[in-house]
């Protein structure tokens, strides 16, 4: 019973103390938070950066947004209007969120929300948000040899430079996806190829007759995928091109030897002018 009386007395004492000071503080100061400090968005799609005011006493606080790219800040929202490269592409939403209508790859940066409240004990707070915009890959450049010989090594290449994050690569043979490790697939257990999903290389240690056909590559990330047109690769039992080049080399050497022999005989058989007159 005495405890209750003491607590009530303490409560009235605290109330009287702050009343005599003229007010009871309703807020320690302005406090901000965000739902996500790291935000991902797909290019050309909308995204909202949240700047939530958890505590504030000032009725009309000053709200500003800055974009920080390569360490250089620039205004995004200043003096109650959208500025910079987001002008006409964004708007401020209550309480202090920024909605970007159609994000582009140039929007990848850090964004800082700043709120100043002059009537609060803690009159300023800020929060930093990192925005990364995913970019769908474009059609990759594929390189497939026209013809190879059984038992030789070769490499098929695939490259794409626009996608963000960097895409992963997959290869298809006659519209069937090839496994990265053929030993994990009974169908390709006897194959000698290997795929590097990071660089897009498809390497054959020893080409088989069954490796002939159409090949195409696909580049894929979280924003989408793109693929090149199928290209044919022939596989020959013998090196026809090599044999042809060797035959051409032998024929050329024979012709050169024949011409040289003919020219030599012609010089040897033609008498000099003085010698002919003496005769």
Automatic annotation (TrEMBL):
SMART domains: IG (SM00409), IGc2 (SM00408). It is a single-pass type I membrane protein. Residues 1-21 form the signal peptide. Residues 25-130, 137-234 form the Ig-like domain. GO terms for biological process: cell migration. The chain crosses the membrane at residues 240-262. GO terms for cellular component: bicellular tight junction; cell-cell contact zone; plasma membrane; protein complex involved in cell adhesion. GO terms for molecular function: cell-cell adhesion mediator activity; integrin binding; protein heterodimerization activity; protein homodimerization activity. InterPro entries: Ig-like_dom, Ig-like_dom_sf, Ig-like_fold, Ig_sub, Ig_sub2, JAM-C. Its main location: other. PROSITE patterns: IG_LIKE (PS50835). Keywords: Cell junction, Cell membrane, Disulfide bond, Immunoglobulin domain, Membrane, Signal, Tight junction, Transmembrane, Transmembrane helix. It comes from the Eukaryota. Pfam families: Ig_3. It is found in: Cell junction, Tight junction; Cell membrane. PANTHER family: JUNCTIONAL ADHESION MOLECULE 3A (PTHR44598:SF1), JUNCTIONAL ADHESION MOLECULE C (PTHR44598). Belongs to the immunoglobulin superfamily. This is Junctional adhesion molecule 3a.
């Amino acid at each position: 019973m005495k405890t209750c009386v003491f607590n009530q007395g303490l409560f009235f004492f605290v109330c009287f103390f702050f009343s005599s000071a003229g007010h009871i503080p309703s807020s320690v100061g302005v406090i901000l938070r965000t739902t996500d400090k790291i935000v991902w968005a797909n290019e050309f799609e909308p995204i909202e950066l949240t700047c939530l005011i958890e505590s504030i006493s000032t009725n009309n606080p000053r709200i500003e947004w800055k974009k920080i790219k390569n360490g250089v800040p620039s205004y995004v929202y200043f003096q109650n209007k959208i500025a910079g490269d987001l002008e006409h592409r964004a708007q401020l939403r209550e309480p202090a969120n920024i909605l970007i209508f159609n994000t582009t790859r140039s929007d990848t940066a850090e964004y800082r929300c700043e709120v100043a409240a002059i009537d609060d004990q803690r009159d300023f707070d800020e929060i930093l948000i990192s925005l990364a915009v995913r970019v769908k890959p474009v059609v990759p450049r594929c390189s497939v040899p026209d013809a190879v010989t059984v038992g030789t090594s070769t490499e098929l290449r695939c490259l794409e430079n626009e996608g963000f994050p960097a895409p992963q690569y997959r290869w298809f043979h006659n519209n069937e996806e090839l496994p990265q490790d053929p030993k994990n697939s009974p169908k390709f257990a006897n194959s000698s190829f290997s795929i590097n999903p990071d660089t897009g290389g498809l390497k054959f240690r020893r080409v088989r007759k069954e490796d002939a056909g159409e090949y195409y590559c696909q580049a894929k990330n979280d924003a989408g995928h793109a693929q090149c047109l199928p290209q044919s690769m022939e596989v020959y039992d013998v090196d026809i091109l090599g044999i042809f080049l060797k035959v051409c080399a032998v024929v050329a050497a024979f012709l050169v030897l024949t011409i040289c022999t003919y020219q030599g005989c012609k010089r040897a058989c033609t008498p000099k002018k003085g010698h002919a007159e003496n005769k």
